[in-house]
Amino acid sequence: MGIKVNHPGLLTTIQDLGRPGYFHLGIPISGAMDRMAARAANLLVGNEESEAVLESVFLGPQLEFEADATVAVTGATLPPRVDGEERECWTAFRVKAGQTLSFGYLQEGARAYLAVSGGIRTPQYLGSRSTYVIGAQGGIEGRPLAAGDMLPAASGANPPAEGRHLPEELRRVPGTHTELRVLPGLYWRLLTEGAGRSFFEDTWKVAPEADRMGYRFRGGRPLAFEPREQPFGAGSDPSNIVDGCYPYGSIQVPGGTEPIVLHRDAVSGGGYFTLGAVISADMDLIGQLQPNAEVRFVSVTMEEALAARKERRAQLARIRESLA
Amino acid sequence: MSNASIQAPVPGVFYRRPAPDQPPFKEAGDSVAVGEVIGLVEVMKTFYEVKAEQAGTITEFLVENEGAVTAGQVLASLTSA
Fold first, then answer.
1. Between chains, do A208 and B42 touch, taking CB under 8 Å as contact?
2. Do B71 and A58 touch (CB under 8 A)?
3. What is the pLDDT of residues A70-93, one digit of tens each?
4. Domain range for residue B32?
5. Are A43 and A323 in contact (CB under 8 A)?
6. In CATH, what is the architecture of A177-315?
7. Which end of chain A is more exposed for a tag (fewer CB within 10 A), N or C?
8. What is the ipTM of this complex?
């Protein structure tokens, strides 16, 4: 069966849980920015969690279904409509052959995930269907959806009953003010004590250019650096180093002014210092931040970061149990 | 005659001109046709065109040039024909 793209939205890509294992070659993991929401969408329609889904940013697509399917929308509150009639988010519902799925205005969050029973079955690249647009890999010809595309979808063997939903306490959509937990890293020492304090004290706002490669923030005080003679091979700006690896979630601050948190389509290394990294438990949350959303960074220890990861795993276990 | 509005399709920064050195797409009092562009919203390094979904006359712009907008926010009010 196929799903015809009548309108692609602003930027809709095919994503699954990504292609780990190639970051050392410069190929990022990609995959859903909000992995928990993508997993939940799949579970709601009876798929494996790793099936490919559609990730839509801010604006939903218009899709015409060739055959009956059970679908679910999770993540951002982007109200789905079947032939104009509204349906619930985080809830499985039927779309019949010939019907059109569209979306209302974004109400909360940034990225909505649409899972289709059976999954979207574009060819895999390095073990994943995730679209990495900069590298033109995965998805449909390595690009976002375009009007006229036909999405191949498997027909779900035993789609669950319509109306199956995830209880509200198991959904995560950020509110107006978000705290992102940060583990200070190897280059923390390059900042002055005052800069180290102000980074965590100030309120930062998501810049409009934030995307899948990185989320840029502005609005906090510029960061000052300890005076040092720049080592051979490093650029002249104090925020430059002699190249380093960039972990997912790492925070670089070019020129000391606007922190950038690297996300799923990140570059793997370069010559900016990274003051630390957003912990893995909070990475999904970043993918749901709208432009101008207010954020504070909160310093945590490795023990706290690991405890938070454990808590996220427990949350995933509760989601699985709820939809088993 | 009835009142209608044009809403921001995506969140971001609203621009009333196609480029800084060009005149605004539309002014209050101008008429618009269905599908006509009345402004741009910049987000994620993309400029998304805001189009009128109804024909009519623009009565007022409710967001200034370069103002921050949320999805669904009313950008302009319209008296539909």
1. yes
2. yes
3. 999 999 999 999 999 999 999 999
4. 2-80
5. yes
6. Beta Barrel (2.40)
7. C
8. 0.86
